[in-house]
Amino acid sequence: MVNLNNKSVVFLESPKEYPIPGVHLKVESKMLDDELNEGELLTRNLYISLDPYLKTKMGGVGHPSIYKVGQALDSYVVSEVIASKNDKFPVGAVVFGNLGIEEYTRVRTSNDLKIIEDARESKVPLSSYVGALNLAGRTAYCSLIDIGKPKAGETIYVSAAFGGVGQIVGQISKILGLRVIGSAGSDEKVDYLVKTLKFDAAFNYKKGNIVESLRSAAPEGINIYYDNVGGETLEAALEVLNRFGRVVLCGMSSIYNRTTPYGIKNIILAILKSLKLEGFVANQFSDELEERFFKDVKSWLENGDIIYKEDITEGLENTPEAILGMFQGKTFGKAVVKVADL
Amino acid sequence: MVNLNNKSVVFLESPKEYPIPGVHLKVESKMLDDELNEGELLTRNLYISLDPYLKTKMGGVGHPSIYKVGQALDSYVVSEVIASKNDKFPVGAVVFGNLGIEEYTRVRTSNDLKIIEDARESKVPLSSYVGALNLAGRTAYCSLIDIGKPKAGETIYVSAAFGGVGQIVGQISKILGLRVIGSAGSDEKVDYLVKTLKFDAAFNYKKGNIVESLRSAAPEGINIYYDNVGGETLEAALEVLNRFGRVVLCGMSSIYNRTTPYGIKNIILAILKSLKLEGFVANQFSDELEERFFKDVKSWLENGDIIYKEDITEGLENTPEAILGMFQGKTFGKAVVKVADL
Ligand SMILES: NC(=O)c1ccc[n+]([C@@H]2O[C@H](COP(=O)([O-])OP(=O)(O)OC[C@H]3O[C@@H](n4cnc5c(N)ncnc54)[C@H](OP(=O)(O)O)[C@@H]3O)[C@@H](O)[C@H]2O)c1
Ligand SMILES: NC(=O)c1ccc[n+]([C@@H]2O[C@H](COP(=O)([O-])OP(=O)(O)OC[C@H]3O[C@@H](n4cnc5c(N)ncnc54)[C@H](OP(=O)(O)O)[C@@H]3O)[C@@H](O)[C@H]2O)c1
């Protein structure tokens, strides 16, 4: 094989607020040295996940970037092996795992890659393997079960409910027999949550007072708050949580792009109502729980118990704009980039 | 028996900030109607506990008072039965439980009273039955075990460490093999924590930066933060907690006398470090755990494994000043009022 021209999304500078295309990251074309060593692979990337976690990796307020200037960002990717010096991953295999945000990736250590055995006759869209069946889904499933401890008949509130994680949290909760309330940043998202994803209630957090919206969606209070956004929404949920309520601290999207921190003023309610707030990182859960996640969510996707709305941006060159759009709430569903067809 | 002249501490008005003698509460003398009905008792109160919880009961910012104007406050009390129409509590029995902050109490329902069988030859001071063997001790023991989940070799940090709850939390933690760090509001208290109560390290939170003091007392970080004060100290502890750390949210003394709430700005650390924060109310624990508490703490007090420093104010008439002093941190140890000798 000859040298390949490879487009990558590369890091330029840590964003203090929003990551701006051309300032903090950009698309760059470079020749890829595809002369493989023993054990290495070359993959052609098909679908790439965009996650808010990219902001953390790029650094910003208080944290340095994990990337060097000019280095390609990385993410959860579905990819086809197009050259291989590794028997475990033959040419033609379709894999998913952590790879570069680029058209082609030269894979030096393939440890975390997994083969999608039925890729060519998959019953779920291949893109599921970067979100619903990857970080977003694993995060949702494992933390909801392990930390949220949902029980049939309880009420759960999920913020950023139409995001990659939130959609799954809400729909698993429905499957488990909970009453599910979601919030999102536009009326279209709210509509979709109720009409298509069958949430029991949803509201647009940008309109009106969050405590009031939540109280009227959950007149008897909530038992679990699945927190994707932090800040004012976390404060509102603390107000409306019932005794012995649980807060799953998953993410704080409302503060990632702020330069001044937001102070939570009503933590004392955790004492008065015996609340538990627990944070986690997605890789802390047991192998057993991760296996249950993959099996359950795959079968729920296959039989339609879970619908997973993805907002697919076509073409690697549009990735920086898509990343910015995700942080601005412009994405309608889970943010994914499609680089190529299988 | 003839009618008794009875001094009581009565409620006047909800304090927005500190409870001021003469403004929010005062001592009043009244004749007590001691003509008992069937089932009733008359008790002569000996020791009375003063707890920060009084502030909550008296109302203030956002919460109404549970007392009516002119009504006697109530608390944890050790008392002698001096008249009885109730076979379970004969004259001469020494009891402890919830009674009025007054010289004599006419007890209409004696449900929660317990008899101290060995009161006249007690190996622990009778005053222990209002604090170490009552709310303060029960709170400390049950929440530390059930929520803190202390393990030998771990490091715990306790704020308001020389208070009624804090002293017990720290000393139980030592017994369980933890490294114990405390903070308090004066150098004398800090000295006592280290020299007499055998804390491994302690600091005066009013001097210097709390994060720095905590880091130098716990260079390898802390695993449990037992929070009696909230606010800035809670923020500092979140900074210094290690991965999978637990925060026992017991009380927020630093905000009880503030009119403006304090915002916790670094809750995001709970996600990055997989921290758990859990609040509780003292009566939520199992009977089994409460029984273990009483048995363990009583024997630790008897054999000197736990030292319980009480700051005893003599005379009921000095109670309003003692209450104010407790909120101002003037109390040296657990705040107790001695009304009379047995
Ligand atoms: N702990 C972990 O290990 C772990 C793992 C994965 C993800 N996470 C976190 O989980 C959260 C959800 O992740 P995701 O992948 O599902 O992302 P996502 O929700 O699909 O994407 C971000 C969404 O957050 C919402 N948002 C943006 N700014 C906001 C603001 N100021 N206030 C409220 N909402 C805002 C937007 O939707 P709206 O239109 O509704 O505003 C946006 O679409 C993120 O915070 C992420 O960092 C944590
Ligand atoms: N959750 C429950 O069910 C439950 C049950 C019992 C008690 N509690 C709570 O547990 C905490 C401790 O109770 P306790 O009976 O042991 O009270 P305590 O600590 O004996 O009395 C209050 C002490 O708090 C400290 N303090 C006062 N203002 C402060 C401030 N601004 N910042 C930091 N510290 C301050 C003072 O000591 P310094 O000189 O060290 O400042 C004061 O002596 C209280 O918050 C109480 O409300 C909760």
From TrEMBL, chains A, B:
Domain of life where this protein originates: Eukaryota
Keyword Oxidoreductase in record: yes
UniProt cross-references to InterPro entries, sorted A to Z: ADH-like_C, ADH_N_2, ER, GroES-like_sf, MDR_fam, NAD(P)-bd_dom_sf
Pfam families: ADH_N_2 (PF16884), ADH_zinc_N (PF00107)
Domain Enoyl reductase (ER): 22-337
SUPFAM superfamilies from the UniProt entry: GroES-like (SSF50129), NAD(P)-binding Rossmann-fold domains (SSF51735)
Keywords attached to this entry: Oxidoreductase
Oxidoreductase in keyword set: yes
Protein name per the record: Enoyl reductase (ER) domain-containing protein
